Amino acid sequence: NMVTKCLGELGEAAFSLYNIHGAAVCGAPLDCERNIKCLDSTGFNRLVYSQNFLKTMKKRAQQQLDQYCDGDPDTTAFDYKRAMAATTIAEMENAVIAPIYGYRDNVDYYRCESCYYYLPGVAVPLYIINAGDDPFFCPEFYPMEETVDGGSLAPVKLLKTDHGGHLGFIFHQLEENETSRGKVASWMPL
Length: 190
Description:
By secondary structure, the protein is mainly alpha-helical. The chain is 38% helix and 8% strand. It starts with a helix and ends in a 29-residue tail after the last strand.
């Protein structure tokens, strides 16, 4: 998300000022507002990933409270009590991220920071590879390619593989006719 968003923000300066000739990214969330529903949905994502991430976020919120708010749980910098009671990442981002960084709420944060909205500003060739079975991303959302002829500054190629999970092989079980080196079971085309 950060690389794609940065390229969109830089526009032509990516090449002219920073000598960036192109980029390739994998696991780009594209639209965080859509994806939060996958992250916070019941099942594996919530039990394993979201709950572990929430523990980390709560520890960080406690550190922020102690370091910058004199340990005052009634601080106005963010909603500490709501943060500690959060059961989803969206609730945590509403309680901490949004107020600290000046967003109205978590949805405003997602809309301002999702790299999808910055694709038209990308001025160097960009190749985005995502897996169709990535459990963290909305499976129904995958925007079409942007091309120079379509009004974009540079070609943006999006490849959605059938398998690969989130940045690897974690969620795809190999069939008998597949090998770990075959394109069928990999997010990276060979």
